[in-house]
Amino acid sequence: MYRETDIIQTIPGTDEMVINVGPQHPSTHGVLHLVLTINGEIVKKVEPHIGYIHRSIEKMCESLTYRQFIYSTSRMDYLAAHTNNHACAMCVEQGMGIEVPLRAQYIRVLMDELTRIASHCLWWGSIAMDCGAVTPFFLAFREREMINSIMEETCGARLTMNYNVPGGVMADIHPTFQQSVKDFVRHFRSKIDEYDELVTGNIIFQSRLKGVGKLSKEDAISYGCTGPTARASGVSCDVRKHFPYEIYNQIDFTEITHTAGDSYARYLMRLAEMRESMSIIEQLIDNIPEGDYLAKTKAVLKLPKGEFYSRVETPRGELGVYIVSEGGTTPYRIKFRSPGFSNLSALDHMTRGHKIGDLVAIMGTLDLVIPDIDR
Amino acid sequence: MFSLENITQIVHTWLYENMHPTLALMVEFAFIGVLVIALFAFLGLVLVMMERKVSSWMQLRLGPNRIGPWGWFQTVADTVKLIVKEGMTPNNVDKLLFNMAPILVIIVSMVIMAPIMFAKGFQIWDINIGVLFVSAVSSLSIIGILMAGWASNNKYSLLGAMRSGAQIVSYELSAGLSMLTIVVLTGSLKMSDIIQAQETGWWLFKGHIPAIIAFVIFIIAATAETNRAPFDLAEAESELTAGFHTEYSGMKFALFFLAEYVNIFVVCAIGATLFLGGWMPFHVGNWEQFNNIMDYIPTPIWFFGKTFFLIFVIMWFRWTFPRLRIDQLLNLEWKYLLPISIFNILLVTVIALAGWHF
Questions:
Q1: Which of A164, A234, B223, B325 is deepest in the core (most CB within 10 A)?
Q2: How far apart are the C-alpha atoms of B347 and A109, rounded to whole Å?
Q3: Under an 8 A CB cutoff, do A204 and B238 touch?
Q4: What angle do the packed helices A102-130 and A263-285 form, to 10 degrees?
Q5: In this structure, is residue B268 part of a structural domain?
Q6: How many independent structural domains does chain B possess?
Q7: Spatial separation of the C-alpha atoms in residues A155 and A328, rounded to whole Å
Q8: For residue A23, is the peptide bond before it cis, meaning its omega torsion is within 30 degrees of 0?
Q9: pLDDT tens figures, B291-337
Q10: With the C-alpha atoms ordered B243, B247, B249, B254, is the resulting torsion angle positive or negative?
């Protein structure tokens, strides 16, 4: 019997049903709202509705000075606060023509890679949780905790590091920094094998991810995907390789790409990236040169009139910072090109025709951070 | 061998000597009801605590450790909270079905206790079709889940309930066939006969390969039938928030929760009875000394020990494996487990006819 109050209704004339996933839902990792059109278990359409955590960071930055605005970007991609700050600091340095001391460059790159490992660790835990296994989340947090402690030691903060300033880093590394990073890498080398044993090799996990959420190379490019999401589809887009910043051109590392383009490729991609980050860290940690950690800069920074763009490779992809300056102490306009936004736009294309369970897994492998999308 | 037969016999004769038979039967019913509810309370407390401790050990945590010694009263505190909490019925739900569903689910798990033999001479109802009774009654719980999912007037609940329906109906087949393997070997559906047949050794060891295959399939099917991870699609926390009991709160939710744990206990008890010899002590061939020592251990300890071992295995699954997808779940049943089960039952029939088992 049909009642006015029945929520369970199909779209007239079809067997399809509209269902809201989020904004409060365990697997959207934040306040993402997806409007799904489903036919039974099969997803027909995904419509992401964003804006629930929009804080107008770009507008706020217009009233902050070039030293101040960097800190508000820590709140964008809160799992990779250091790389966000890095991109902004680099953009200001580029505009001012500040030469960053070599020591600061080493420290920045080390911190970037540690951030990448920490972010991928959390992602590894959450993708396993999206697939229904809870235990990996706790294992991943064990390793992430060590990185957080290293960050706390040197930067004074665990999540929003605010360690980058125009011209270098805010403070010199802690005396025990090198030792604790080395300890961490040694520890993590054994633990990442444990990750493989527990999750990667699991037949249920593999069957959940393999062949699911395929994104072809062409689609990845046309949706503007970057980072591991695009590289898993065979797009070579590592900013560290193609537009080397800091000392990345002196480091020996390979850009990992997969061609399958499915969820499993994205999964393997990030695990391989963690290993690659570790080898970068190992190359740098013993060779940090002596010298200044911060270049001498003027007390008040004024960017010359013009437009400036810088980009870094965050754990999620390419973060671009675009500053338009009119010559004052504050930017005229700032635009962030956040990786999550473009990656999210491919979700609908990847999910159509798959099951609801796959939607969650695909969303997990995209590694979305909602504040990064909304800003 | 430790036996409760004398005690139950004394109570039985005393009641029938001093009372009208109908009244005596009623008193026995009341007695059994109290015992079953006490067992429910015990299982609710112990299994929830066990799950928390097992999961916390697997996840580098301590688990509850504040209330009472070693956190043992955490479940009591939770129960008090759930009882005090308002049992809310949302607007626009089908009120009758919504309120009936948890009761139906809990009644099913209560009824299914009847043929289980907890110790030597301690059984509620030694029905001659015990195994059939168990598999028949256990399939009723799906009605409660479907009712809950439909009546909640919530899309997540509906999806969860439909998943659960497909899942339980499918896995019932494998569970039934693997139980049948032991029935073929024993030649009886009666629980006490099945246990008696294992006096010389448990079916898991005596029944050759078919019994081992049946045991593995039974454990998988039991996990699926109780909606436990990796087959917890009906709840699927990361996909459907809480599945069929999304709209339930307070004691109504607690009843679903309790029924889940009691169902785990029941399937593990059935598994222990069929494959691991129920209350039968572990005996090794001619080791008289060893066998005598084993006989000294009371039979309820044997039964509960085996059952809790299987419960631990099922909990271990939950905290290790990711969840399957609905199509993979059904593929696993219809393409793998069911053909293997059917082949297995043919194999065991041949073995039983030829008398090749020990």
A1: A164
A2: 64
A3: no
A4: 150
A5: yes
A6: 1
A7: 29
A8: yes
A9: 777 777 788 888 888 899 999 998 888 888 888 888 888 888 899 98
A10: negative
The two structure tokens encoding residue B73? 């009263």
Q: What is the largest CA-CA distance in chain A?
A: 79
Does residue B64 belong to any structural domain of this protein?
Answer: no
How many whole angstroms separate alpha carbon A178 and alpha carbon A281? Answer: 10
Q: What is the DSSP letter of B337?
A: I
A192 CB contacts (<8 Å, ≥6 apart)?
A271, A274, A275, A278
Return the bridge partners of A324, or none: A307, A333
Residue B133 sits in which domain range?
Answer: 90-354
- CATH fold of A55-374 reads Cytochrome-c3 Hydrogenase; chain B (1.10.645)
Tell me the CA end-to-end span of chain B in Å, nearest whole number. Answer: 23
Question: How distant is the alpha carbon of residue A318 from its chain centre?
Answer: 9
Q: What stretch of H or E contains B30?
A: helix B21-58
Helix, strand, or coil here: A42?
A: strand
Residue B71 lies in a domain: no
Q: Which residues of A151-172 are buried (b: 16+ CB within 10 A; e: fewer)?
A: bebbbeebebbbbbbbbbbbee
**Per the domain annotation, does B44 fall within a domain?**
no
Of A26, A138, A359, the CB nearest to B237: A26
Residue extents of the structural domains in chain A: 55-374
Mutation choice for B interface testing from A29, A32, A41 by most B CBs within 10 A: A41
B250's tokens: 């307070």
CB-based contact, B227 to chain A, within 8 Å:
no
Q: Does residue B326 sit at the A interface (CB-CB below 8 Å)?
A: yes
Residues of A near B (Cβ–Cβ under 8 Å) read 3, 5-8, 17, 19, 25-27, 40-41, 128-135, 137-139, 142, 198-199, 202, 204-205, 207-208, 355-360
List per-residue pLDDT tens for chain A, 375 residues long: 455 666 667 777 777 888 888 788 887 777 888 888 888 888 888 888 888 888 888 888 888 888 888 888 888 888 888 899 989 899 888 888 888 888 888 888 988 899 999 999 999 988 888 888 888 888 888 888 888 998 888 888 888 888 888 888 888 888 888 889 988 999 898 888 888 888 888 888 888 888 888 888 898 899 988 888 889 888 888 888 888 888 888 888 888 888 888 889 999 989 899 888 989 998 888 888 888 888 888 888 888 888 899 989 888 888 889 999 888 888 888 998 888 888 888 888 888 888 888 888 888 888 888 888 888
Radius of gyration for chain B, computed over Cα atoms and rounded to the nearest angstrom: 21
